[in-house]
DNA sequence: ATAATAATTGAAATCGATTGTATTTTTATT
DNA sequence: AATAAAAATACAATCGATTTCAATTATTAT
């Protein structure tokens, strides 16, 4: 295995010092253009490839950004990552990605690994908001920026990129009301999570605006897992009057509900309308197609990464007093499951 | 920002040399146990964190494995990555992941980035098999192991981890025949791709075994995109006799076909059975649920990573004369779309 | 043409861990 | 106790790029 070409080889070939070669390759302004082009020519002639290990050691930066995701199994996650990647590679950074697989233990391990790898910054969508942010302390101490997205942790000096959940739920609920549905059953994830508290706010807002009294019996907190729909439908049927619409905070769960409802001979959307959340691929495949909220994954990824890079450039911008949030607009996608034929 | 603790700090505190500290921390056998424990105690007291940049430079290894994936949007991809991650982190490696988003240009860029990042090895599921493996040359030249999985490129000295496509297609076809379906329309991706040629073999094998003549009109090559199903169904209807079963090499496409068939008043599975491939989430959501082939993502990821790590340990094992393949068993999941009521 | 100033380039230290070889310490043997 | 052998530790070079400060060269003004 032949040895790698270094700046010393280039320097010798060019009759210059390694210092000048280094500066030329980094496009430093004090190097004459003529010298630069000479060096670049030799570099490509010799097939020079910068040794990032040496550069990392000297500059104490890895040019890697860590990303911790619950799971890489949806179009949404894929597009968030794609957005991040676009912005990062533009700026010369790579992504060190790991899945927490919805395990807090794994999230903990991932955070630790990222720290050992000396990533320059961290983007996190948390396993659970209830997990806290204690485990990011090593990052905070070293002033390495940590930015949350989608599932956002609460901590001082942290930034979170989220969708405007209040507005999203408001829009979905309003749509149902406009279609003439009045008794809207709303299924959410854990009450402890901001995301769902916000959505509940949006739901209430739409009701108030349409002069409909809020009824706590029509709101349910659930795990939103694929098998949670049995419980959901059971709970609906226990009510003295069956709801005429179902607004579930997750497409997978909503899709399954449709299946169960159909199997019970309940017609969607005539007997009951269904609205989901996320615009998963599933939503276009259940029968009837699911009305849902689309959120801009790509954009979220881009904004999260941009914010991170900005903090790397200007560390003073990290000094916030509490979790600051950037909310993205989401959009309602109306399909058959919520429109009376 | 206080300075990081180095092995020199530990050495001073322990009254030993940095060399011994380094060896102790790496659990080198020539260091006395007593010395080791002393050093570990001091290291943790001082909050020492190894500087991987320095280690990387000295050892000329990054401890990063690059992974290039078409897109991170399915359970299958997520579980492959999870499998890789499990094995890698066990051995002290991290994953540098990037999506090619089905663009050859992007795959090219990713490969280049991975090379610049000096990953110790590369795991690739290619955008397209027709893309060739020219762009991996820098890796080959430096003897950095590249292993393909799922979508496997053809090249000398390369290993590919695939499923046993012959057997998978054989099993699916046999199942249809056993259910009494006789005219099975088989839709595949490009003829140039091994994967599909193998599946065609399996299809033929099952026919022969059941004394049914092979009919080329019943085989179609397609892009398998979500909107390809119009063509598929059109082609089926052009036949003098309509097929009674449809075996499509992709769940998404198969699911769409079901939708289109239903919209045309053709009943699945009574008029025509449908079998897909991949066991995507979709398959459990179309109506009727889709019979499909499940392949072991987690296992594939684990095996790919294990093979890679083995080559890192023993570089001589890289010397193969051509693409060698490891085939994994897949399983047929029978659901409503292929079982007559 | 010459001094003064600006523009380039070079020398050498540095980042922190690793490792081949030399040296010291410990243990075993007679 | 003295010596040989083995075990443990230290010295010092090294990996390759970056960067401060000093030195040199080029440019401008007088």
UniProtKB/TrEMBL annotation, chains A, B:
SUPFAM superfamilies: lambda repressor-like DNA-binding domains (SSF47413), Periplasmic binding protein-like I (SSF53822). Keywords: DNA-binding, Transcription, Transcription regulation. Residues 5-59 form the HTH lacI-type domain. PANTHER family: HTH-TYPE TRANSCRIPTIONAL REGULATOR GALS (PTHR30146:SF109), LACI-RELATED TRANSCRIPTIONAL REPRESSOR (PTHR30146). It holds the Pfam family Peripla_BP_3. The keyword Transcription applies. InterPro entries: HTH_LacI, LacI/GalR-like_sensor, Lambda_DNA-bd_dom_sf, Peripla_BP_I. GO terms for molecular function: DNA-binding transcription factor activity; transcription cis-regulatory region binding. This is LacI family transcriptional regulator. It comes from the Bacteria.
């Amino acid at each position: 295995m032949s040895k790698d070409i270094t700046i010393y080889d280039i320097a010798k070939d060019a009759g210059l010092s390694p210092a000048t070669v280094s500066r030329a390759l980094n496009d430093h302004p004090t190097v004459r253009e003529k010298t630069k082009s000479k060096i670049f020519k030799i570099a490509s002639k010799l097939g020079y490839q910068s040794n990032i290990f040496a550069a990392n050691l000297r500059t104490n930066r890895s040019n890697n950004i860590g990303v911790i995701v619950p799971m890489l199994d949806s179009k949404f996650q894929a597009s968030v990552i794609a957005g991040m990647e676009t912005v990062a590679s533009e700026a010369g950074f790579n992504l060190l990605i790991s899945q927490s697989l919805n395990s807090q233990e794994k999230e903990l391990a991932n955070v630790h690994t990222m720290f050992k790898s000396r990533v320059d910054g961290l983007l996190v969508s948390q396993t659970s908001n209830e997990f806290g942010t204690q485990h990011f302390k090593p990052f905070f101490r070293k002033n390495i920026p940590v930015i949350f997205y989608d599932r956002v942790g609460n901590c001082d000096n942290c930034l979170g990129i989220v969708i405007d959940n209040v507005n999203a739920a408001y829009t979905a609920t309003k749509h149902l009301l406009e279609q003439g549905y009045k008794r809207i059953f709303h299924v959410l994830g854990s009450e402890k999570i901001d995301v769902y508290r916000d959505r509940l706010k949006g739901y209430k807002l739409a009701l108030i605006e349409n002069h409909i009294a809020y009824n706590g019996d029509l709101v349910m907190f659930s795990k939103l897992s694929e098998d949670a729909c049995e419980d959901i439908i059971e709970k609906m049927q226990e009510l003295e009057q069956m709801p005429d619409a179902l607004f579930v905070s997750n497409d997978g769960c909503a899709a399954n509900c449709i299946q169960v409802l159909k199997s019970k001979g309940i017609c969607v959307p005539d007997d009951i309308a269904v609205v989901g959340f996320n615009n998963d691929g599933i939503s276009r495949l259940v029968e009837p197609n699911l009305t849902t909220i689309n959120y801009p994954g790509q954009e979220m990824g881009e904004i999260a990464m941009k914010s991170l890079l900005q903090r790397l450039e200007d560390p003073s911008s990290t000094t916030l007093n509490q979790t600051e949030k950037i909310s993205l607009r989401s959009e309602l996608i109306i399909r058959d499951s919520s429109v009376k034929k």
